[in-house]
User: Fold this.
Amino acid sequence: MNNKLQIADKTFSSRLFTGTGKFSSSALMKSALLASESELITVALKRVDVQDKDDDILLHLNHSRINLLPNTSGVRDAKEAVFAAELSREALETNWVKLEIHPDPRYLLPDPIETLKAAEALVKKGFVVMPYIHADPVLCKRLEEVGVQCVMPLGAPIGSNKGLKTQEFLEIIIEQSNVPVIVDAGIGSPSHAAHAMEIGADAVLVNTAIAVSQNPVEMAEAFKMAVQAGRMAYQAKLAPVKNQAEASSPLTSFLN
Amino acid sequence: MAAFETHFNTCNWDDTLASINAKTKADVEVALASNKRSLEDFKALISPAAKPFLEQMGQMSRELTKKRFGNTIQMYAPLYLSNECQNICTYCGFSLTNKIPRRTLTDSEILKEVKFLKNKGFDHVLLVTGEANNTVGVNYLNNAIKLVKPHFSNISIEVQPLEQNEYELLIENGLYAVLVYQETYHKNEYKKHHPKGKKSNFEYRLDTPDRLGKAGIHKIGLGALFGLEDWRADSFFTALHLKYLQKHYWKTKYSISFPRLRPHSGGLEPKVEMTDADLVQLICAYRLLDEDLELSMSTRESETFRDHIVQLGITSISSESKTNPGGYAVEPQSLEQFEISDERSTEAFTKMLKNQGLEVVWKDWQHFN
Assistant:
């Protein structure tokens, strides 16, 4: 069974994507990210100095397994997002970008209108666009139409650790999507990650739950295993959920 | 759209203070148990009735702060550009009638100070001036922002209130945040402490954050100067202001600062004392009110206090600050706006943070335009 995930020109063995924020040191971040076996790791452009070869965060992410996924966190509209993506393509030599436009600084909820505009422009400029969005099935189809290579709907607000509050809509997105669906934001525990994979998400992105744990390295490994277990369960097809008990010796079996 | 003044005028100081002091243990318990806290809950959390719950508030504040901000702390440095001032403020070292040498930094002097701060590692800077519109007006500020922009990712100002179009100009040239403290929300006391100069206009200052919001500023810093009036009532009005602004200017981020009166030349003794425990209670109460709010601390506070408060809700902090223009490199001996308390070097201070398991964040912003 081919269990690899393909996005644009890259193939991933790990379906756990991770982030770099909130760790208590860059060294600890690196240990945790290596333990997670994650191959795609997002980094906020506003947090690093892309012109600086000795940037502490970037130095710690320099590893053969790690693909950098620059994100546009901090931009407020499509124009700023495109500017940020172009800056990162030039400085970090990757055309991959996690498109995050959240003009609301409190809940960091994504702006669907600006995201669609920016996605369309960036695809035309040759970017691999991974948009962070609400769990909005129609928006996902619209993004697919403009050529994004995956969609990243949220499970709950970023950093909230609340799990799949948007499950009903995630299921519709997964059912309808022709591009990989990555559940981003809100995943607070390995069981949430397994849950997302069980309902058919192609991958999950986890940051806060690992970084803020008492033991980020062990937590990273726990997420790795949970994502693998969830994926395996999805492929093995879960037994259906029943509302009532079902007798193993049915009353009408004598009729057969 | 009505400005905050209209909203503010519906609240009475004495009634507010009485209702804070009337909060009971049961009110505090309700506030602590809630997961979406109101301004009434905030009143309970800053009330005397919440004092026995301080440890619990501290634990909760720490957890919420960690969840949102992680194990990190943002560093910033104030850069005083001028001590010229046309205002009389009873508590300030730069007050018009204080006989001190006045100085406004030139371009080359500003760049000397910038170099000092860059060598220390700072990437977020706060430009500070008094209010002297002939020498330190919007043109001077605009020039200063353009001058320092190549050197800092994030530029804030703490200067006289400006007009909306003036803010728009500064934002276009790289301004990120404006700190404008009301000092006190007690209108009559405000007039006593600001008898002369443009600052004596209470309402103009009160509506400054509205002008900033309309100008599209990224961040507004609010606060009261503790010691002028009752800190509980002033903090309630600050929180009221915050909630109003968050609803009206939803793209803007907010931060709160907690200045307590410090000694300075020409000094004023605090009328109302705020103890260390009071300040901890207030910081935790803000965190319980709003888990995303930036809470900022200066070097006004002591080493011991700062070493502990970084685990209790504070997310942004300065170190080794100088509150006199030219204080870092140009003229270190000139007279300060107020005495700082924690005089440790930035190296020593950040080492302390790292030893506590906090990642020191220097850069967390970039202009993408």
